[in-house]
Specification:
single chain, Jelly Rolls, about 20% helix
């Protein structure tokens, strides 16, 4: 993905999602635009359901960052406010627990097929 440039002291939304009712994690890196600057800043994670808002959470901006969207986060935003000019780059989002759901679904289908075939003999 193309890097997002954020100037020092500017609060910028780097991610906005409308719910798909799946828990997701989003990983991104942050690098100072000037390699001599020390990386510092704040990440604000805001999520809410349709009617009920919940308080934002804050975490320090680091070189490697991870934020998570809950199942009930209908509107989900991530803001970054750096203390130096930074370049933010996202990696592919992941769906939490999707692998386990796929395995369970496959087992259920195989068992259903086995029971159906057993009825014919």
């Amino acid at each position: 993905m193309k890097p997002i440039h954020i100037p020092k002291g500017e609060r910028k939304r780097i991610l906005w999602k409308v719910s798909n009712s799946l828990q997701q994690s989003f990983a991104f890196t942050a690098e100072p635009a000037n390699r001599e600057d020390a990386l510092a800043g704040t990440i604000e994670v805001s999520g809410s359901s349709w009617i009920f808002t919940k308080p934002s959470t804050f975490q320090p901006l680091e070189a490697e960052n991870m934020v998570s969207k809950g199942m009930w986060d209908t509107f989900f935003s991530v803001y970054v406010e750096p203390e130096c000019d930074v370049e933010v780059t996202f990696q592919q989002p992941t769906v939490d627990n999707f692998g386990w759901l796929a395995v369970i679904g496959t087992v259920v289908v195989v068992v259903a097929i086995a029971l159906t075939v057993a009825d014919f003999f």
